[in-house]
UniProtKB/TrEMBL annotation:
Domain EngB-type G: from-to ranges: 369-544
Keyword NADP on entry: no
Protein name listed in UniProt: EngB-type G domain-containing protein
Biased composition (Basic and acidic residues): 24-33, 125-144, 198-210
Span list, region Disordered: 1-148, 177-242
Keywords: GTP-binding, Magnesium, Metal-binding, Nucleotide-binding
Residue ranges, compositional bias (Basic residues): 10-23
Organism: Carya illinoinensis (Pecan)
Needed co-factor(s): Mg(2+)
An annotated Gene Ontology molecular function: metal ion binding
Lineage top rank: taxon: Eukaryota
Listed HAMAP family: GTPase_EngB (MF_00321)
Regions of compositional bias (Polar residues) in chain numbering: 107-120
Length: 545
């Protein structure tokens, strides 16, 4: 729309100028007319709106066939009109060249060029029309346009609608195909070409380029780009002279079992022993699971907590008020003076522990004068250590980390009130089988036949729990109606909860037993946990006597 208004403005300006000239001086008017008609000097003529849309280049004396229009090739109506105009222009140019014979080239507006062939009358008509248009205050622009176009004399005969169409199409083409106009040879080389022709030439060249080198990407369409890239890739692969890597093929021999996993269906003939071991492992696993499922009774849990049983940090013991610098600190009285700390509450255990007899057979047992408390259990369970811890007399009873140190029944007097008996251990020991069997037989004879034996403390390692040999001895004591009490040792080795679980488990397993004395005791000779409680329990035996 802005272009159209611009055109109108120009047209009006021209008309104004023309009218002014006609009014002011006839000479000027004549001059103007001469400029319109005279093209011989090659001056640029005053142009109507068509100047922009259509330019005709005529090479004077040159080939007339090269005279072309720069208009829109797509507008057929306009093309027809131009052809007509071109023919007229050609004729006029020929006439001019015959008259003056000057080979100068000129630029003229096609329609104004046509007007050169018209008479002065037609121009006056044009002027009149312009004046009229001015008089109507330039309001009816359409009318002016039509009159102006009609003024050229060439398009006079056309209907209004057709004229309008041609003008519109010309403008549209001008706006869109500015490139086409630019490609005209304005410099007067005389080689004007049709834009379509130029375009086709250009495309041909581009196609040729593409054919020659596939690397040139022509942005005709995305598909072409993709194709070009593929082509480029293919070519690059070809250009790369690197040898292609062969895929490594691994051939597996069906009968070769070395590469196969064991659980891939290969049957391995296991021996009976291995099968038994596997079963045992499975059973053990299930035993562990069972053990984890044990819920200790509240009384056991409180007992464990009160006596600080199980694996504890030293800071915890310190916070509880125990002197951790002492040996077996938990056997001391918390938050008390140093003299009180050293004190053993039970009078029986304050007495001096003295060894008085060792027996390898039942015939060598000493006469039962004092109530006896025997300490039985598997080798290395901590029998001798517990005796020392109870009396706080370290070194009286020999201990060793090597199982099987105690090989005889050792009798200790604790003052004149109690006799403590250290029994040889059973189960694994660094000793001959016959010797071990003899120890076992001796222990069995002592616990089942000994007169004056008031209680057997059956020590069980908390870490390992009850073993079949332990059950054997229990059964024996049950049969001989010997009172026995279970004492869990080395409680400092495992977590408190596991201590409680073991206690619960053993208590449950011995519920039906008659000779068992409750409660189950838990101690640690190392930390001193539970030692005072055990002392209290055992001192009752001395008091009863
Ligand atoms: N951590 C810890 N170790 C202990 C405890 N009681 C004993 N021991 C150790 O266990 C090992 C064996 O102790 P002993 O008292 O000799 O065991 P035993 O039952 O008399 O052994 P035998 O005489 O061979 O039957 C020694 O190295 C002790 O230091 C305990 O409560 N806690
Ligand atoms: Mg011992």
């Amino acid at each position: 729309m802005s272009g159209e208004s611009n055109l109108r403005y120009r047209l009006n300006k021209r008309l104004k100028l023309a009218s002014r000239r006609s009014k002011n001086s006839k000479d000027e008017n004549k001059k103007f007319e001469s400029t319109l008609s005279n093209d011989g000097k090659g001056k640029l003529k005053p142009m109507s709106f068509d100047r922009k849309t259509k330019r005709i280049y005529a090479e004077h004396g040159g080939t007339n066939e090269e005279v072309t229009s720069s208009g829109n090739a797509k507008a057929p109506n306009r093309k027809i009109s131009f052809k007509k105009g071109q023919n007229q222009v050609k004729d006029d140019v020929k006439a001019q060249t015959n008259k003056k014979k000057s080979p100068r080239s000129i630029w003229v507006s096609s329609k104004i060029e046509n007007s050169t062939t018209e008479t002065k009358q037609s121009y006056r008509k044009l002027k009149d029309a312009a004046e009229r248009a001015r008089a109507s205050n330039r309001t009816n622009a359409k009318e002016v346009d039509e009159m102006d176009v009609g003024g050229t004399g060439l398009l006079k005969k056309r209907s209004k609608g057709k004229l309008k169409d041609t003008v519109d199409s010309a403008w549209a083409s001008n706006r869109t195909k500015t490139k086409g106009i630019d490609e005209f040879d304005v410099g007067g080389t005389g080689s004007l070409k049709k834009p379509s022709k130029i375009k086709s030439d250009k495309m041909k060249r581009l196609d040729q380029c593409q054919e020659k080198s596939p690397y040139v990407s022509i942005s005709k369409s995305a598909k072409k780009n993709v194709r070009g890239r593929r082509a480029l890739d293919d070519d690059s692969e070809v250009l790369d002279d690197q040898p292609k890597r062969k895929k490594r093929v691994i051939r597996i021999d069906r009968h070769d079992t070395s590469n196969k996993r064991l659980d891939d269906g290969i049957v391995i003939n296991k021996s009976a022993k291995e099968k038994e071991k596997d079963l045992e492992k499975k059973n053990e696993m299930s035993r562990n699971a069972q053990f984890r499922a044990i819920q200790p009774s509240p009384s056991i849990l409180t007992y464990v907590e009160d006596n600080l049983l199980g694996r504890r940090r030293l800071i915890e013991l310190r916070r509880a008020g125990y002197n951790i610098e002492l040996s077996a600190p938990l056997d001391n009285i918390p938050f008390s003076t140093s003299s009180e700390r050293e004190r053993i509450e039970d009078s029986a255990f304050r007495n001096k522990l003295t060894f008085f007899a060792a027996a390898k057979s039942s015939s060598s047992f000493p006469p039962p004068e004092l109530p006896e408390i025997a300490f039985a259990g598997r080798s290395n369970v901590g029998k001798s250590s517990l005796l020392n811890a109870l009396t706080r007399q370290w070194g009286i009873v020999r201990t060793s980390d090597k199982p099987g140190l105690t090989q005889t029944i050792n009798f200790f007097n604790l003052g004149s009130k109690l006799c403590l008996v250290d029994l040889p251990g059973y189960g694994f020991a660094y000793a001959k089988e016959e010797v071990k069997d003899a120890w076992e037989e001796l222990v069995k004879e002592y616990v089942s036949t000994r007169v004056g034996l008031k209680r057997v403390c059956l020590l069980i390692d908390t870490k390992w729990g009850m073993k079949p040999r332990d059950h054997e001895l229990i059964n024996l004591m049950e049969r001989s109606q010997t009172k026995y009490q279970i004492v869990l040792t080395k409680t400092d080795m495992i977590f408190p909860i596991d201590v409680a679980r073991h206690a619960m488990q053993i208590e449950e397993s011995l519920k039906a037993n008659k000779s068992v004395v409750q409660p189950l005791m838990m101690v640690s000779s190392k930390s001193g946990a539970g030692i005072r409680s055990l002392r209290t329990v055992l001192s009752k035996i001395a008091r009863l006597m």
